[in-house]
Every structure is written in C-alpha cells, then in structure tokens.
C-alpha cells in the first residue's frame, strides 16, 4: 500500500500529482471513517490506561509495591505508544484529505468519484501515477 507524503508536479502532463512512498507493515486503512473509528478506539484505550494508573497510584499512596510501580511505568509506555498511533492516524487523515482536495480541482473529479486512478472515494491516485510512470510520462 502507498502512503501520501507530499505533492509534486508531473512534468510530462503539467498536472499536480501525489508523491508516494511505501507504508510500514502495520498499515492504516485509506478510509477516513475507518480511521476515525480506529482513533476513537485508541482514545478509549488511552483513557482506560490513564484511569488504571490513577487507581494504581492511589493504592501506592497507601502502600508502596514495586510490582505496581512497574505496572504504572508499563502503562505510561503503552500510553506513549497510543499517543503516537493517534498522531499517525491524524497525519494519515490529513494526507488523505489533502489528496482529495487536490483531486477536487476545477473539474470536480473527486466530487464525482471519477478521474484516473480514483477508487471512487478520491483517496488514491496510485493507478494514474503508475500508468504515467510506466508509459514514460505520455499520459498512458
């Protein structure tokens, strides 16, 4: 799958195109609704970890326990990872949104779900980019 990282210009057709790179093994979906659901799930997990830490810290205030202290530290590490995941999701949503906006130019291709390389939701121009690069930039 491909991750959008910025915008470039197709020199053969003088049309804006997206510059892409390979995504990491744990891939996020291209669907904004699914991404929002994932984000909400991560926020809920983050909330539970935070609540758990508060309860553990209350117990530690009454009696010190090395295992509980370790649990708090483990939870903090997990919370940091959850926050990173949320930021990654937010970034991916922003990139998809920018890609859709770039496709929704004067012709309104993204709004109609058309245009080369579009999957109907305007979130990917990979096929058009591949066609352009495979045909030597002749619009393929």
Written description of the protein model:
By secondary structure, the protein is α+β, with helices and mostly antiparallel strands. 59% of the residues lie in helices and 12% in strands. It is built from 4 helices and 2 strands, in the order E-E-H-H-H-H. The protein has helices spanning 32-62, 66-103, 109-112, 126-134, and strands at residues 2-10, 15-22. Strands 1-2 form a two-stranded antiparallel ribbon. Strand 1 and strand 2 (15-22) form a beta hairpin. Helix 1 runs antiparallel to helix 2 (66-103). The longest helix is centred in the middle third of the chain and has 38 residues, at 66-103. It starts with a strand and ends in a 6-residue tail after the last helix.
Which SSEs are present, and which pair or pack?
Layout: E1 2-10, E2 15-22, H1 32-62, H2 66-103, H3 109-112, H4 126-134
Antiparallel strand pairs: 1-2
Helix pairs in contact: 1-2
Low-confidence stretches: 1-17, 109-140
Helicity range: 55-70%
User: Could you give the distance between the termini?
Assistant: 22 Å
Query: How many H/I helices?
Result: 4
Shape: rod-shaped
User: What is the N-to-C order of secondary-structure elements (H for helix, E for strand)?
Assistant: EEHHHH
Note the main sheet. Answer: 2 strands, antiparallel
Structural class: alpha+beta
Radius of gyration: 22 Å
What strand order characterises the main sheet? 1-2
Quote the average pLDDT: 73
Beta content comes to 5-15%
Question: How many strand segments?
Answer: 2
């Amino acid at each position: 799958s491909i991750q959008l990282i910025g915008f470039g210009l197709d020199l053969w057709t003088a049309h804006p195109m997206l510059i892409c790179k390979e995504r990491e093994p744990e891939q996020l979906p291209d669907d904004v609704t699914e991404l929002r659901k994932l984000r909400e799930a991560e926020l809920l997990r983050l909330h539970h970890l935070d609540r758990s830490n508060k309860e553990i810290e209350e117990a530690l205030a009454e009696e010190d326990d090395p295992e509980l202290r370790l649990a708090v530290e483990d939870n903090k590490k997990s919370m940091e990872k959850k926050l990173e995941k949320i930021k990654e999701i937010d970034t991916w949503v922003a990139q998809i949104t920018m890609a859709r906006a770039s496709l929704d130019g004067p012709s309104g291709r993204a709004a109609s779900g058309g245009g080369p390389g579009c999957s109907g939701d305007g979130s990917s121009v990979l096929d058009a980019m591949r066609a352009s690069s495979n045909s030597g930039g002749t619009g393929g």
